[in-house]
Amino acid sequence: MSGSTSERMLIFLLRISLGWVFLYAASHQVFVPGWSAAGFLEHTKTFHGLFSNFTGPVIAPVVSFLVAYGHLLIGLSLVFGLMVRVSSVFGILLMLLYWMAHMDFPYISDHNNFIIDFHIVDALVLGLLIVKHAGHVWGLDRWAEQQDFVSANSFLRWATA
C-alpha cells in the first residue's frame, strides 16, 4: 500500500469506522437473547416474496445466527485489519441485501432516500477497502502475509493481499 500519510489515515479511519458499525450491530444481535432476523424480514416491501422465505421457524434461527455472527466477524476483521478482503466481500453482500430489504421502490426506507442510501455508500467504501489493501494500513494483513503458513496457502495469500 503506497500513498500519502493522509490517504493512509483516511483508509484506516474508514476501515475502523465501518468495523465499528458492524460490531455495534452485532452487539444488539449476538448478546441479546432471543434476537431474530425474522421480524425485520417479515416487513420487507419490494422483495417481500424473496425475504419472507427466510422467516420460517426452521430457517429463521439459521439466518439469525449467520447475520449476527457475520456482523461480529466482519467487524472484528475490519477493526483488526485481518483478512479485510474476505470480510469486505461479505460486507458488500450484506449491504446489498439490506438495501434490497429496505426498498419500497424507488425509495429506500423512506422518501429521503431515492434509489441510493447508506447501504450502497457502505458497500462502495468496502469496495475501496479491498482495492486499497486496507488491512495493510496499520492492520494485521501485512504481518499475516509474511507468515509461512499464509504464503503456502493460495486462499490465505489472496485473503491477506
Features:
161 residues, mainly alpha, 3-stranded antiparallel β-sheet, 9 helices, 3 strands, 63% helix
Explain this structure.
This protein has 161 residues and is mostly helical. The protein has helices at 5-27, 38-41, 48-51, 60-80, 84-102, 118-131, 141-145, 148-151, 154-160, and strands spanning 103-104, 107-108, 110-114. A three-stranded antiparallel beta sheet has the order 1-2-3. The radius of gyration is 17 Å and the shape is globular.
Task: Offer a quick outline of the entry.
By secondary structure, the protein is mostly helical. It contains nine helices and three strands.
What's the number of helices? Answer: 9
Q: Specify the biggest β-sheet.
A: 3 strands, antiparallel
Percent helix, as a range, is: 55-70%
Looking at the structure, what is the overall shape?
globular
Q: How many structural domains?
A: 1
Average pLDDT across residues?
A: 94
- Trace the largest sheet across and list its strands: 1-2-3
Please tally the β strands and state the result.
3
Show unreliable segments: none
Output the helix-strand order. HHHHHEEEHHHH
What value does the Rg take, in angstroms?
A: 17 Å
β-strand amount: 5-15%
Distance between the termini: 10 Å
Structural class: mainly alpha
